[in-house]
Amino acid sequence: MKVNRRQVLLAGGAMGTAALLAACSGGTNSDVDSAARPGGGGRPRKGGTLRVGALGRAGAVTRDPHGTQANESDYLIIALVHDTLTAPGGGTSNTAPRLATRWEPSADLRTWRFTLAEGALFHDGTPVTADDVVWSLRRLRNTPAGASRLPGIKAANITADGPRTVVLVSDYPNAELPLLTRLSTFVLKKDTPDSALAKAPGTGPFRLDWFRSGNARLVRNEKWHGGEVLLDAIEVKLFESPQAMANALLAGQIDLASNAGAVAARTAERRKDIQIVRRPDDMAMPIVMRAASGPFADPRVREALRLCVDREAMVRQVLSGYGTVGNDIMGTGDPAYAKDLPRRTRDLARAKSLLKEADFDTAKTYRLMTTEDVPGLAESATLFATQAREAGVKVEVVKQESASFYADTWLKGDLYTTYWGTNDSVLFFASKTMGSESSQNEAGWKDAAFDAAYRRAIGTKDAAARAKALREVQRIQHESSGYLLWGVAEGIDLAAAPVRGLPELPGYGRVQLERAWLAR
Amino acid sequence: MAGPLTPAAGTPLREPAAAAATLRRALGGALWLGGVLARRALLLAVLLAAVFAAVELLPGDAATATSERGENAADMAARRELLGLDRPVHIRFADWMTGLPTGDLGTSARGESIAGLLSRPFPNTLLLGGLALLLTLVVSVALGCWAALRPGGPVDRAVSATATGVLALPEFVVGVALVLVLSLWTGWLPAVTLAGADGTPASWDMLILPVLALAVPQIGWNTRIVRAALADEATAPHVETAVIDGLTRRRVLTHHLLPGALPTITAGIATSTGMLLGGAVVVETVFNYPGIGSVLAGAVTDRDSPLIAAVVAVTGAVITLVLLLADLIRAWASGARA
Fold first, then answer.
1. Which helix (H) or strand (E) holds B269?
2. pLDDT score of A210
3. What integer best gives the mean pLDDT of chain A?
């Protein structure tokens, strides 16, 4: 999601409100009692309307499930109306069933067969067929960003095998292919014309009652294949600014403020009637050091910068404590995340000696490019610059406006901040941002051993061998990639006390509201 | 048979000289009106050209700003062509301008009809601005008169001091304070404006805080204008005569002071229109009000020149109309007094 400049301007006002609220509420900082925790407490009850606030821009509203959803509100609505093939999971697997209940790879890991849920129906009552899914996936693949949404899968290699089986053939062995079908593989009826997208029936837990300028009312799909839905309806309200959204929650005008952020959470901390739902491993905001060329091409320099940073202080100050320390490995929420690799901590003496060894020019000032696209991003750059100075590296922070950042800095700059919201897969980043071939290699980092380990990890069926390869991917990345991942932000939703059964998964897991219910 | 061209029986015929004078005056009035309209239209066109030029100067363009991470250069180029961005800016501007007279506001960078994008938010903003203007007018005239009736007294001094303090407050500060006090602490009013199924505010009480946030600074500004205009008028000989004649203060105010101060008050209120519509952009963000403020902010982020220009055009048209109305009122008021 993108935040516009006006919202940043208003952040000053937001801070003021937060401070005043904190000063005026006399209550102590007590936890919401355990019964009010999301997911737990009481017997699930049917009925009620959940009013959800979601961020978005009125001018960027889109109804196309395969289009560019810059608005959380649009994504939320689309995700509740249309099912994806698979969904983000929790626990031991980061891929959970959705419209597909099972998937099976061929021995060479190139052909994957997805079996559709029995009894899955569109909202108009017609059964979902493999043809519908094939048509939808091909439509997705043929969008401008299709190649990065379904990498390695050509449109022609998406086919139906019988009424309930969809076959995807990858250009190369890919053990993680089901992961690719989690986020935007929304299923529409075959041959839905573009003009009918706005009212097209989905297969999801809710069907559209009305939609108007980013606001919508969704009502329960009584016949959802995924089980019983408890809420009668969900009303989605579009908010331009996180502060207005938090105010609406505090004033009781909405029940859930989706992805409200740390500032709002601080405001709500003293309110007993507000639950703070923390979804770990939500957003990575790494610093990218150009490995291909420029002053940071020497791995010793990159190592030195990684040693400069005081990670605990970054998490405490930039994320208000709503996050965890990172170890320069992207994809911290992966069940296979290598927790055993040595934790890098601050070591200024070692950093200085590495810089000396690499003959790094400490007389020069280096520009760190950043944006205010997500909360905390620019702050992280500023704090890093302060910390780097203590190791003798002069860093000047330059804030760029989002459009110029993507035009001039992203994928090109020597030193810049970036952010990623799909943070539950090590291989997602390996394929997208670090492989020699990847089109979005942010640091221009190329490493033959890494590529080999990556290919082993996605091309090996044997679980133990795969695990070994996965660890190797992370070890090489930890040692020499162009990323400095100091920490990972938690996703923070705020909810009124009666709301139960809220999702606790990172990233787009937050849109899975079909199990939510109201205890009132 | 009495047709439209034959004077009905009994209608007194005007003397030729008087009729000619009336005609001359009507013609002169029409010419003046036409001149004013033409000047304002030209000004608006120049402004719109400036908007296109300004967006062109911003880094990035509509294709990059609305793209998705992962889109490759070829797709970007295709979209640039689709949006017409490969053509020079003056051609794009001319294209867009020629559509204006037919009511065609063009297509946004995201492929939506701009007229459709503004069809709900713009009336909402007009409602917000209109209510704030009305409130500003009523309250500032009332406060100004109240103070003017007791020149130099405690009420006068209090009103003047408060007005000065208030006019310096930015709308968003007023807005945040109002939310804090009237909503979050007391729970009296909704904190934000939520849109219903038809796109308008879901209930009327959601309008109170945004209207107040918008009107308060303008009330401060206009109260001072009203008060000053009344003070000026109080020194006029006919007012002094009226006072010496022993008319009541109220009568002096309504029959002698206010009519004389009317042109100044009208000018003050008219200038507030621009400030109100400008302030609406900020206030709408604070209150999540479903108006054009959010559309405009998003359009700037998207480098969406036609959409930004369309917002400027419709807002400019409204301001032009109000200014014209004010000019007419002033012309009428000074003519009536001459």
1. helix B258-287
2. 95
3. 89
CA distance A231 to A238: 20
Q: What is the pLDDT of residue A120?
A: 95
Give yes or no for B184 touching A (CB within 8 A): yes
CA distance A349 to chain B (A): 38
- From B183's Cα to the closest Cα of chain A, the distance in A is 7
Under DSSP, is residue A226 helix (H, G, I), strand (E, B) or coil? coil
| Cα radius of gyration (chain A) | 23
- In order of their start, the domains of chain B are 120-301 (1.10.3720.10)
Tens of pLDDT, residue by residue over B132-154, are 999 999 999 999 998 888 888 88
Q: What is the secondary structure of B67-99 as a DSSP string?
A: --TT--HHHHHHHHHHTTTTS-HHHHHHHHHHH
b/e sequence A107-117, b meaning 16+ C-beta within 10 Å = eebbbbebbbb
Cβ neighbours of A496 in B, within 8 Å: none
d(CA B153, CA B54): 50
Give the number of other Cβ atoms within 10 Å of residue B210's Cβ.
27
Residue A257's H or E segment, with its range, is: strand A256-257
Task: Reply yes or no on whether the pLDDT at B96 is more than 50.
Answer: yes
Q: For residues B191, B194, B200 and B202, what is the CA-based torsion angle, rounded to 10 degrees?
A: -80
**CB distance A237 to B194 below 8 Å:** yes
Among A317, A280, A296, A286, residue whose Cα is nearest residue A424: A280
Mutate to test the interface with A, among B81, B294, B302 (most CBs of A within 10 A): B294
pLDDT digits (tens, 9 = 90+) for A171-186: 999 998 998 898 889 9
For residue A501, the model assigns a pLDDT of 93
**A241 touching B, CB under 8 A?**
yes
CA-CA-CA-CA dihedral for A172, A178, A184, A188, to nearest 10: 100
Q: What is the pLDDT of residue B24?
A: 82
In the block, tokens 């289009």 appear at A67
CA distance to partner chain A, nearest, from residue B302 (Å): 8
Say yes or no: A247 contacts chain B, CB-CB below 8 A: yes
Cβ(B296)–Cβ(B281) below 8 Å: yes
Q: Any CB–CB contact under 8 A between B67 and chain A? A: yes
Query: Which residue, chain included where needed, has tokens 């208003």?
Result: A10
Segment (H or E) for B271: helix B258-287
Stretches in chain A below the pLDDT threshold 70: 1-41
Structure-token pair, residue B66? 């609305």
ipTM greater than cut 0.85: no
Residues A489 and A495: their CA atoms lie apart, in Å, by: 19
| C-alpha to C-alpha distance for B114 and B317, rounded to whole angstroms | 16
pLDDT tens column, A427-472:
989 988 999 988 889 999 999 999 999 999 999 988 899 999 999 9
CB contact under 8 A, B71 and A145: yes
